[in-house]
Amino acid sequence: MPFKAHENPKCPKCGKSVYHAEARVVGDVSFHKECYKCSMCNKMLDSTNSNMHENALYCKTCHGRKFGPKGYGFGGGAAGLSMDTGSHLEKK
Ligand SMILES: [Zn+2]
Ligand SMILES: [Zn+2]
């Protein structure tokens, strides 16, 4: 019988269908309520503190750390410390 399945959007986090009642919609992407959390620190998000980057969710803190305007990367000044001047500082 021609049962017309209602197409639910897929959650990019877990790949399962998202039903309206549990959907957290960001732009044209729907997440489950429980999947609507930061992909780095797993903090639950709401519309006021969420940021999305290429279908991955981040809280404001992690998003700022990863993509922030000042370009803080992980490890902060690690790139600078890899220069050989760093070894002088460590050796006392
Ligand atoms: Zn999900
Ligand atoms: Zn986070």
UniProtKB/TrEMBL annotation:
Organism: Macrobrachium rosenbergii
Places the protein is found: Nucleus
InterPro entries found in the cross-reference section: Znf_LIM
Annotated ranges, domain LIM zinc-binding: 9-69
Gene Ontology terms, MF aspect: actinin binding; metal ion binding; structural constituent of muscle
Protein name stated in the entry: Male reproductive-related LIM protein
Upper classification of the organism: Eukaryota, Metazoa, Ecdysozoa, Arthropoda, Crustacea
Pfam families recorded: LIM
GO biological process, one term: muscle tissue development
Coiled coil: none
Entry keyword set: LIM domain, Metal-binding, Myogenesis, Nucleus, Repeat, Zinc
Recorded superkingdom: Eukaryota
Gene Ontology CC: nucleus; Z disc
Principal place of residence: nucleus
